Amino acid sequence: MKSISKEHYVILYPQYFDSRVSRKMGRRVSKSLAVESPSLARIEEACRKLGFKAIVEPDKAYPRMNNVMCGRVVVFCKGIGKKNLVEKVGRTMRGGGS
Q1: Which of 23, 91, 93, 94 yields a CA-CA distance of 20 to 30 A from 50?
Q2: Which residues touch 40 (CB under 8 Å, ≥6 apart)?
Q3: Is 12 helix (H, G, I), strand (E, B) or coil?
Q4: pTM above 0.85, yes or no
């Protein structure tokens, strides 16, 4: 990915939304917004439903589990904070819309 200001994008990992992952190990949404085994495609689809451009990078590892190549989704979303975006994506994956 070419150099882009960090103000313009947010990186999302599947662990942020996985109901089987503890908060300590990286889950960023409440259990009520978490899903079991979220895929990169499902995260990307939720981002697109919310109107954001997203790029899947399947060969990246989550920093807390750097021996597991789970991939990540880069979301271009100027003007929205990471915490707010993560919650909206979680809600969309659960079927609750934005």
Answers
A1: 23
A2: 14, 56, 58, 71, 72, 73
A3: strand
A4: yes
> Computed from CA positions of residues 90, 72, 75, 12, in that sequence, does the dihedral angle turn out positive or negative?
positive
The model's pLDDT over 4-53, given as tens digits with 9 standing for 90+, comes to 555 689 999 999 999 999 999 899 999 999 999 999 999 999 999 999 99
Helix extents (H) in the chain: 40-49, 82-93
Q: Judge whether 19 and 34 are in contact, CB under 8 Å.
A: yes
Q: Residue 33 corresponds to which tokens in the numbers above?
A: 């917004």
Q: Are 70 and 62 in contact (CB under 8 A)?
A: yes
Which tokens hold the place of 79? 């003007």
